[in-house]
Design goal:
Helix content is about 35%, strand content about 25%. It is of the alpha+beta class and about 300 residues long.
Length: about 300
């Protein structure tokens, strides 16, 4: 019965998106057309390295995952969310586990790690909780139940081996429990943000998988963090400020205003999928594909 309600919720969201774009020639005019287009997007399954153009990087696809890149990923975003995120460059999806990992690239300039020690994880969690409580007032205006932040499942952790930061905390929506799991990997000219999408239980069963997947993305030579050269464009913020704002804390620098505005917009876009359940899109895929997942080809690249 829960699956039925989940599928109904997804259908309602996509139907609302279809209705909202009824006069938009770029959006399919029927729900059947939306379903067909999602199925026929250029999903990639071969176990090999794929180029990610926005970030000048490579990603090695793991068995069990399907990949969308570039315009196809942004089109999927448009079809399922009703709006397109221009910074999104890829997503991967596993039908069996319903896990998604979303890739966004931001050409911010070189982000310094010198302010890392300024990050106070306990204070950051308090800020996230306070900001979530404030946003609940807006949710109430639309008869949407409020969210509450649980606690750190993993405090922000800096990995200097691959120049990345990751963190995880849980979010409560009534009796439902979700995870907010983010990784940021720094490059020479900007950073890649990885957003993990799954239920709380699925995260606990595969909590080490996100780190593995993040490690399978690597910037091309000349675009790596280690390739920094004096005179390169510097970001207007350091890693501590970037983590604080991305996680949902308070702005710490005026230079973060534009970034903060962009994150707010993305947060609004993700609100509905969060409320209907992070496994909902996975259930929708199973309905679309009839439980059939094209088999990946054997990995012959030896990479």
């Amino acid at each position: 019965m829960k699956t039925l309600y989940t599928l109904l919720a997804v259908w309602m969201v996509l139907s609302l998106a279809s209705a909202a774009h009824a006069g938009d020639s770029s959006f399919p005019q029927t729900q059947q057309a939306v379903n067909a287009e999602i199925i026929n997007l250029p999903w990639e399954y071969e176990l090999q390295k794929y180029s990610l153009e926005k970030s000048n990087s490579q990603f090695k696809l793991s068995e069990g995952f399907a990949l969308l890149r570039g315009d196809a990923a942004r089109r999927f975003d448009f079809l399922t969310q009703g709006m397109e995120d221009p910074d999104m460059e890829a997503l991967i999806y596993n039908q069996d586990t319903e896990i998604q990992l979303i890739f966004n690239y931001y050409p911010s300039g070189y982000v310094s790690m010198e302010d890392w020690e300024d990050l106070d994880a306990d204070e950051l969690l308090n800020q996230i909780s306070e900001n979530t409580d404030k946003s609940n007032a807006e949710r109430a205006k639309h008869n949407i139940s409020g969210l509450s932040v649980g606690g750190w499942l993993q405090k922000p952790r800096l990995n200097e081996d691959n120049n990345s930061v990751s963190w995880v905390f849980d979010v409560l929506d009534g009796e439902e429990r979700y995870v907010n799991a983010i990784s940021i990997k720094l490059g020479r000219k900007g950073y890649e943000k990885f957003t993990w999408v799954s239920s709380y239980d699925d995260y606990l069963l595969s909590m080490d998988l996100m780190a593995t997947l993040v490690n399978q993305q690597n910037f091309d030579q000349g675009h790596r963090y280690a390739d920094y050269s004096v005179g390169d464009t510097m970001a207007a913020f350091g890693i501590a400020s970037l983590v604080a704002v991305t996680a949902g804390g308070n702005k710490q620098k005026a230079g973060l205003a534009a970034l903060f505005a962009g994150l707010v917009a993305v947060g609004k876009k993700l609100l509905i999928p969060l409320l209907i359940g992070l496994g909902a899109i996975g259930a929708f895929f199973k309905k679309l594909f009839g439980g059939k997942d094209p088999k990946p080809q054997a990995d012959s690249s030896k990479i």
